[in-house]
Structures are given as structure tokens and as C-alpha cells.
Amino acid sequence: MSKPLEAKPARIRTLEEYHAAYRQATEDPDAYWGAAAEAFTWRKKWDTVRGGEFSPAGTSTWYAGGLLNITENCLDRHLAQRGNKLALIYEPNDPHTRHLRLTYRELYQQVCQFANVLKNNGVQKGDRVLLYLPMMPQLAVAMLACARIGAIHSVVFAGFSATAIADRVQDAGATVVITADGLNRGPKQIPVKSVVDEALLSCPDVRRVIVLNHLDWPTHMREGRDVWYHEEVEGVEKTCPAEALAAEDPLFILYTSGSTGKPKGVVHTQAGYMVWADYTFRNVFQIEENDVHWCTADLGWVTGHTYCLYGPLLAGATSLLFEGVPTYPDAGRFWEVIDKHQVTTFYTAPTAIRSLMAAPLDHVLSYSLSSLRVLGSVGEPINEEAWHWYDLHIGKGRCPIVDTWWQTETGGIMISALADVTPSVPARAGLPLPGVLPVLLAQDGTEIEGNDQEGYLAIKASWPGVIRTTWGDHERARQTYFAPYPGYYFTGDGARRDENGLFRIIGRVDDVINVSGHRFGTAEIENALNQNEHVVESAVVGYPHDVKGQGIYAYIICQHGVPATEAERKMFEASIIETVVAEIGKIAKPDKIQLVSGLPKTRSGKIMRRILRKVAEGETTNLGDVTTLLDPAVVDEILAGKK
Ligand code: WT7
Q1: 3-state DSSP helix/strand/coil percent for the chain, to nearest 5?
Q2: Does the pTM of the predicted model rise above 0.90?
Q3: What are phi and psi of 144, to 5 degrees?
Q4: Does residue 550's CB lie within 6 angstroms of at least one atom of ligand 1?
């Protein structure tokens, strides 16, 4: 059943090959992506490579008619040749705790065993399983175990609040939750199970909670609902036949914020996502057999899904999972881990680079970093200063940097250099991958031709990793991504095509802010703020932040007006922050709160965010047209009270 990896379409190794591949994928996508899928294990080959309608319906299909299981391609396929090769290396939060290594065979056995545990607990194909776990191998195992039996995993980053978990459990209709007693984050130990317990008070449909004992914490187990992970796996079979799934059966749901309403469940399916994860991983990082790949993202985000787990395993590579944070026990931790495990391809976020740049350089200089071959960046635009620091001090000027632009909705990397193959220029994501047809649109939807131009970034044709739907509400996906500009997928980003045709991503053009590479809708944070009993109205905007990229600036009208005393102000602010932490999680805490008596509104009652954004950015003189304001005095008050 297993095929040698060499049978895969050759990796793109030169600029000429890139151009040829790009041309072929554009002119004959069926042939190109058909060939790319040949090397995988299929139970039944597909009938059509591409199908459905890309836009405005947003009903793309890939490899329809095919039957497969992604875990057979991540695991079984490698056993003959790579059974004893390391699949996962786990580096714990505390450097003095022993790390763990899992070969492909061991991972295969653990996945099969846990798949049997899921079955024993009544989980069936199509069921939704919510995972709220620390960044550990057991999370990877649980994801793959779901995939093995055709259950749909929805991982929620273990920093979200009980309310956020409950929203996601309910939206996904999850009936089983997998979690842990607690987790380590740097010097802190954080309860996890008690957060889940609180969430599940409003989720009566969850009938089973499987709890991993990670910290040996006293944990309340609810009779009849909660069971221990280690007890469940005891004596269970380590083989489990993989369910033959349809190419378009859902693989996972991952919640992400948009400009309106609650986070939506982005759905990716079996076959297209598999081909895209594998293809982009191997080509962007130019993966070789002996690479040790480290993507520092948590598995709770799409970057973790595609480049900690699925991409590396599909390619038969070794992937490092890190439980900790970049600054614990000190700002040298990343560099220590790179030396310790001889990491070759390193993939992190600009916010991490900027925070480590601020620490004394000694933290870097104590390590050799000589194993590194390729450096990657993801999540937000990387500023030139951070790019050069990364290049000089981490890559020692000899590692190509791939600045990878993509989104939860795109499944994998879309615009990026291929390491040492296509151009890597500071502050440019670069050229699109084969199969990706990016265009710049003017406000009226017309394509902007030529170089040295700026516009809304949109994608003109379907690619295998495209979002298939938003869970339970296809209309929302259609409206958000495919209807705004019929014929295109709308990214929500603004971009510039430079004089050489390389793309530079400017940032979001919608009401989404990107805080340390995490996406939040301004409306989502406002909804959370408005839950506070003292808050009458709020408006949230992003502003430039040295480390986080963007910070959260909240303008708030309090019930009793602007507080008269400093003590009162502090009390309000603390209470407001507490509300956001409870509604969303610590990651959405406003960086600045300004209590105001009014918000700048037009006569029709619309908040003029443009003005609020300018003030938050520190612009005080050039506020643009304010003549349509209902009450211009509000602006003077806001300017006077600016944080
Ligand atoms: C948004 C997607 C999947 C990547 C992790 C975040 C921004 C992402 C870059 C980059 C400039 C970037 C965009 C995008 N973004 N990568 N290399 N350069 N901006 O995934 O949470 O779905 O956010 O992140 O604004 O729309 P996400």
C-alpha cells in the first residue's frame, strides 16, 4: 500500500522550474493537480480533479469521487521506509523535563490506539470532537485519531475562555471534548479542565470528556461524563483500520474571526487540504529527508494544523512540537531548542522575532544555530528591521527567509518565496505558488493591471486548499469570501505588487485586527466589552504596536460618564478587562482603554471609525473630513484624553 516518496511530483528546484510549474498549473490545473495527487494512497481514485463553482457560489470541490484517509498518507504510507524515523519531537515547557521522541511507527500505534478509544466512547464518522489541550503530542494524536475514523476535529487554542469554548461547542454541535487537567505556559501553570467544566454548563449535548493527566492536578471528574485518557487507552489495540472517506468529507473545523459577528467555523476537507498541505510544505521549505522542522505555532491555529502536523507528516519529515513560550526560562529558549534538536527549518511569527530582538544579543550568541537552513515568517507583515535581524543574527546571512502569506481559509501558504528558488526580499511575501492566481482589485471590483500598484488582494481561481464552507452556514462563507467580488475569493487584505511583480501584504482592509498574528474582529471585541454592566457603548480599533504588530484600542462610554477620579477609572478599566478575558480570553485584552462621553458619529448614527483609528495611531491634526459629524466637540474631547 505504501509508495516511495520519490514517486511524488518532483519538487521545484530552480526559478525556471517554478515558472514552468506556474504556467502549467494556470493553463491546465486539472493535469497539474491530478499529477500532484497521484503519489498519495487512495482507496479509490477521483472522478474529477476540480469541480463545483469557485465564485460567487463558493462550492469548489477537489478530487470528487475519490476515497481516502489522510492518516494513511501521514502514517501508514511511511511505515515501510520510515517506520523508525522520528515523526515528532516534543520539547516541554520546562527545559529540565525530559523531551520525548516518537517514531512514525510509534505515532501510528498511538493514533490507532486512540482512534479505538474514540470508537469505544461512541464517536462515529461525522461526529464533531472539540480539542482543548496543551501543545503536546497527545493533541496531535487526538487530531489524527479523529481523522482516522472520520470524526471532525475542532481544536480550540487553550487560551480561549469558557464562553469562547461554549460558543464553539454549540456552533459545531460537538458531543465529545478532549482536554487536560492543566497546562504550563512559561512560569505559570494554568487550569484547563475547570475552564472546560464551566463552558460545558451551557453545553448539555456533550456526553463525554476525555481528560489527559498532564500536571497531576487534583481534578474534578463528573460521574458518567468524564474519563481519564490514560485509563481509556489501557490495553487497547494499537491497530485500527482507517475509514475510507470521501474526498470532500470534512477533516476539521477551525474557528476564526471575521469583520462581523461571532467567529466562524472554517471547514477544510480531506483530499484538497492534504494535497495543498503537502505541496506547499515541501516546496516552500524545500524539505529534504533529514530535515527537522520546527513551526512554533500552537496546534490550535491553522499554522499549527498545516505546518506542525499535516504538512510535515504527509512529507515524511520530522516535526518538533514545543509546549513553552519564547522567553522562558529566558529569551534564549528558541535558540537553545534549535541547537538541542538540530532544527533545520524554523518557522515563527514576526511578533516573536520582535520580542526576542529586544532582549540582549547574548541570548542568541550563546548558541551556534549552525543546523539552520531555512527561516520562515508567518501571521502578519514582517517589518524590515525584524527581517534583517532574523537574517543576520539567526540565519547568519546564509539562510533564505520565506515570508509566507496565507490565511485560515486558504489551508496553506499562498504567496511566499520558495527557499533559495524564488526571490526573497525584505517586507515582500514574494511570488504566488503555482495554482495561486492573485489579483489586485479596485474598490469597484475591476482588476488593476501592471506592477507598482496597490489594491484589494483577491484570488481568481480555485486551489486545492480553498475553504469549502463555514460550518452549518454556507451562506455566510459565500457572503464573506465569494460574493463581494463575483469570480474571486476576497482575502480581506490590501496588497501592493512592486516594480518586480513581488507581492507586499499591507494589512487588513476590513474590520479585522491582527494582534501578534491572531485575528480578532473589532465587532467581536466590542460585543464582549458590551457584556460589561458599566459599558453603554464601545468602539474598538487597531493601532501600530512595536511588538504585537497591532494593539487593541478600545473607546468606551461608561454608564456614569467619564469617571471623576483616578481610582474610579482604574476600577472600571479592570472590570472591563475582566469581561473581555471572560468572554474571549487573555489574548484579546485591550492594550489601551479610553473612557469617553461620546463617540464620533455621523448624522445617521454610524460610528466614524476612520477618526478613531487616526487618533489611536497618534494622528491628531489631520483627521480628514469631519463635516458630517453629528457633534464635532466629541472629537476634541477624545483628542484631549488620548492614551
Ligand atoms: C491574516 C490571516 C495562516 C497564517 C496565520 C494567520 C495576515 C498572514 C502574513 C504575511 C502579511 C500576513 C493577513 C491574513 N497574514 N501571513 N506573511 N504577511 N500578513 O492566519 O489568523 O487566518 O490570519 O494574517 O492579514 O489575512 P489567520
Answers
A1: 35, 25, 40
A2: yes
A3: -70, -35
A4: no
